[in-house]
């Protein structure tokens, strides 16, 4: 895929990767069990983009559970996040109980205005800006994002995910800085959701945090494999970071969450080792999918995107084998695969892909699993 | 103290128990260490209303950390909360990462209007309604709340804490139901913050949850002694509860938090035993304070309020002995004492109270510890 994403030409209209009734998040094993009651247990959940080899939990001091998190604990977390992600200062950092909370809060820190979301992408962005009263429209990522900044229609806020979910489209830092500058010139923001940027720190714009108009979001749980801990980080100019901290309110992140994340963000050896491990695992997954005759059109080290007209049949065949992948209501020809963890999960995926008879007849009809609002992303 | 609180006649003007610069929360050990650098370590923190004997942590399944919390886990928590608190249905329950988050959210679910807060009380209520654009005024709890409902001036929202913090003033359920009915009749709400109601379940209005206009808040961390876990519960008519869940957003409470709280809320034996233990401990604390010549004017089983003109001197003497209690900028004659936990903490408090020479000369000047926004409540 080209760096500007033109190779994938994704196009999902009407609010991004969503369906009419609710957002189609990954991780809905309950829904999958209901749809495939005969599937073997345990399920192999490849529907999320979460590292299957989590950061080993350090001991948590009992006071982290019993006391309200103090200013010192929160300051330590912000310092560790700034250092790990490469931000100039902990003053530019705001923490919340998940990046979802930040995605919900940001739209309330501006008066209603015009918002452009580069699509297709994680649909919560468009949904939350719209809910807060902004006028949201999608900008086609394939056609527009690669073009000069002046081509992106004037909006008060421009939102993009980089690298993008689900196609992995990646805009280089210099491109993003141009966009941020253009947004700042009109008193606006560029929001860069770097939920999947941990693998490629040189592509992150966090080191430029503090520049006017630039807002960066990071997700702790995906790369560190601790999605249940609930921690999201925003990096923004100091005034906006302070406003975000106020809007989040005191004690939003749990004491154990602060304690564990502060240790994890400071563990350079684990981070470096994990980057290598995930790279290898993703190369293996791509080989497995290609070997089954599937075309991988994009992704990151935590997920990859398959485009194939047989995708609905493949989704069903995998479901019957107890393997859940991510599909997209607006794009029945897409399936997103996360990384299997245990060797047994790899083997089950391999066997299911090998049983081509079960899915090669797949048509264009999307299966019947109901979308859900409350399952994993 | 009379049930309607008339015995205490507290009166704090200008936004409740706060100071000009920021809210004066408890738990600010960092600030205390800075103000009393010679104090012995470890500090005895009596400035919060948190049970010092926490619920023993059950084993947490690893997936609670690694996966996003699922719908089943959240539903289990809501069911356990409804059962423990005595609500008619889990549909009436919304959970957030701390009751502070709910206090921040509620004001955004109504158009700006007139809000009355029965004072003095936990100052975050008035602050958050005001921040969201509502017109807030304090209603004197001593003069007004004991009078018939028609005497409370017409407001779209009436907020009270029951039992109240810091004076323990308690309105009986029938009184609250009248108020809720009056609020509902004008399309308004009665918000009852039951953060300290776990000790007296018969005084709670949770069993009436679902009635129009009645919104009840519960705090998990105080009674269960796990304030760092971050869990607050709202109980409201089904439509409002659903709106609150939407406003909180998905995955706000951590996976381990859901897992531990679901177990704790269902542990009737521990809950009953803890009620007895806290009652005994509070009786001991009141005896200790009375024995030192101090007047306890109110409280709950988790804190008690001393009213004495020597309070500033006592605050300083306790600080020099490494014991932190809660004071109130608008009421220099008040100090709130939480429960000591370990026997050593009781002994240190006893010794400090016995050294009357150190504090009996105390004047009316409030000490110099700076208030902080981010420390414990």
UniProtKB/TrEMBL annotation, chains A, B:
GO biological process, one term: cobalamin biosynthetic process
Pfam families in UniProt: Aminotran_1_2
Pathways per UniProt: Cofactor biosynthesis; adenosylcobalamin biosynthesis
UniProt key word Ion transport: no
Gly residues: compositionally biased ranges: 13-24
Entry's Gene Ontology molecular function annotations: pyridoxal phosphate binding; threonine-phosphate decarboxylase activity
EC number: 4.1.1.81
Cofactors demanded by this protein: pyridoxal 5'-phosphate
Catalytic activity line of the entry: O-phospho-L-threonine + H(+) = (R)-1-aminopropan-2-yl phosphate + CO2
Summary of the function given for this chain in its UniProt record: Decarboxylates L-threonine-O-3-phosphate to yield (R)-1-amino-2-propanol O-2-phosphate, the precursor for the linkage between the nucleotide loop and the corrin ring in cobalamin.
PANTHER family in alphabetical order: HISTIDINOL-PHOSPHATE AMINOTRANSFERASE-RELATED (PTHR42885), THREONINE-PHOSPHATE DECARBOXYLASE (PTHR42885:SF1)
Name of this chain's protein: threonine-phosphate decarboxylase
Native species: Azospirillum ramasamyi
